[in-house]
Amino acid sequence: MADSLSNTKCAMCCEDTARYCCPTCAKKTCSLRCVKSHKMKFQCSGVRCKTKFISLDNFKCSNLQSDLVFLEDMDRLVNSTAHHSQSKFNRRHQNFQVGVLCLVAKQRGVDLKILPNGMSRRKENTTNFNRKEKCIKWRIQWLFPEVGVEYTDKCVSEQESLGDALRKYIDLEKADAVYKQSLKKYCEVGTQGVCVFLKNELVPGREMRYHQLDISQTLKSCLNKKTIIEFPTLHVVLHEKTASYPTGSQHIDDVCAV
Q: How confident is the model over 103-152, as pLDDT tens digits?
């Protein structure tokens, strides 16, 4: 480039020797001032046209390298667009599923509250409506305050009784050895020696109130006329500790349990 411009005068000032060649219009200029001047005068962008035809006789290694960079840029753009479209589709699909879940939950008499996207409880929630079985599969967080342990079931049918769902943790015959070890106090008394509580989300401020659930009933019945934030968190409490869980009533208007 330097050799080709060594004896060429600037196309703008016609005084100094040209030092630059515009990649768009090939005008030769000597300084930044002249470069800007030529862009204004000729309405030139100063950006090389990446798709401009170059004959094989004039094709150089620099042109080949430039074409490879152009193709890489296009490949990144296509992949980015495809990823964005897929992400947008996934978001719409997820929003549709959440909408269906909330509608079905309302039909069950459950006031299901969904948190904004990005919040940890929203990300963790695996609750879904199974269309084939026409059944809600709930994510349940089990808290065992006496031993400071918690476990999570990702998919519990609303048709299953609360007691059956709990037995896998505290039944001496059905519980896994790991659960028996960590939940020894609970396994000693079994389901007959515990009460299950669900926090009353409608009680404002620091007034903690709970719903005591009947573990002989199905999860569907237990959650009827309750407010749930994303998924139920159930407190499994020994009988002698129930005084720490005051109960209170909850009312939901305009919902119909089915």
A: 999 999 999 999 988 899 999 999 999 999 999 999 999 999 999 999 99
Look at residue 200 and give its three-state secondary structure. Answer: coil
Phi, psi (rounded to 5 degrees) for 235: -95, 120
Q: Report which secondary-structure segment, H or E, holds 153.
A: strand 149-157
Q: If you search the block for the tokens 């879940």, which residue do you land on?
A: 101
Tokens coding 124? 């963790």
Nearest to 48 by CA among 67, 26, 23: 23
Spatial distance between the Cα atoms of 195 and 200, rounded to a whole number of angstroms: 16
Work out the end-to-end distance of the chain between its first and last CA atoms, rounded to an integer number of angstroms. Answer: 82
- pLDDT, tens digit, for every residue of 164-189? 999 999 998 888 888 999 999 999 99
Q: What token pair was written down for 181?
A: 């070890």
Distance from the Cα of residue 98 to its chain's centroid = 13
CA distance 93 to 99: 10
Q: Which tokens hold the place of 36?
A: 């800007």
Six token digits for residue 81: 């667009």
